[in-house]
Amino acid sequence: MDSQDFYNQESEQYSQKRYGGQVDSYVKYFFNQRLNLVLTMLNRISKGRSDMSLLEVGCADGVVLRQTKRTLSEKFTRLVGVDIAENMIARARILSVGMGIEFFSKNQTLNEKFHTILLVGFMTGPLIELERAYVNEHLKDGGYAIISLAGRHSLQARLKLQDKPYLADYRTYREYRELLEKNFEIINTQYYGLVIPKLWRFPKLARFLQPALDSIGTFLFPELMHEVLYLLRKK
User: Fold this and answer.
1) What are the residue boundaries of the structural domains of the chain, listed by start?
2) pLDDT tens-digit series, residues 179-231
């Protein structure tokens, strides 16, 4: 099953599985933590602004854009999401009725440039190259990109992904940096997602320990963290 088929099938339950209800699993912790970091970066780059536009590539059912609308609506007045999965786009439109967010298939022509582009939750080394032209076409000069990338040497990769074919597309964080610096100035990086086997069998304990372990891991062993979120400015 390719990624487009997977996300078409996943569309009805995408947000609930990853964000819904109490944080009682590593998956929910991870997705909510990344969302919070994205919102923090968006708030940082929009200080003093009230006219920002935002394009999310790979928007799924629009969960990130809806939360952006709820928390930063006075700063981001134009929100657009694109995705390769048609079922995700249909679901995003249903869940976002009345919020003023637009959703399109990525195959549709979008004759517009944005202040900020999000590429979160799906990027790999090869995709940096594949998406380069699309980002350059739709990002204003001096605009910002927020990109998440999973590390080849993370604990997640070492313990759980060795038999996954997509691991071949992961790179080290040093290699990602070299790829990104071809077109962007790196403004900020945030590491997150230190996988601790069996910790989330005890959700109450895990909700307390996981943030602390992420902080320690970021400082001492950044290569072991599952992902890095990059805040970039177009050169």
Assistant:
1) 3-234
2) 999 999 999 999 999 999 999 999 999 999 999 999 999 999 999 999 999 99
Backbone angle region of 98, left / alpha / beta, with phi > 0 → left and psi within -120 to 50 → alpha: left
- Residue 76, pLDDT > 80, answer yes
Query: Using an 8 Å Cβ cutoff, are 193 and 214 in contact?
Result: yes
What burial letters (b/e) apply to 121-138, b meaning 16+ CB within 10 Å?
bbbbbeebeebeebbeeb
CATH architecture, domain defined by 3-234: 3-Layer(aba) Sandwich (3.40)
- 46/72 Cα distance (integer angstroms): 9
CA distances to 23, 24, 26, 143, 203 from 198, in Å? 15, 13, 10, 41, 10
Structure tokens at 70: 């709820």
The Cβ of residue 215 has, within 10 Å, a number of other Cβ atoms equal to 13
Which residues, in sequence order, are bridge partners of residue 147? 119, 230
Contacts of 41 (CB under 8 A, 6+ apart): 146, 188, 190, 229, 231
Residues 235 and 226: their CA atoms lie apart, in Å, by 27
Section 143-172 average pLDDT: 95
User: What does pTM read for this prediction?
Assistant: 0.95
Whole-number Å distance between alpha carbons of 107 and 170: 25
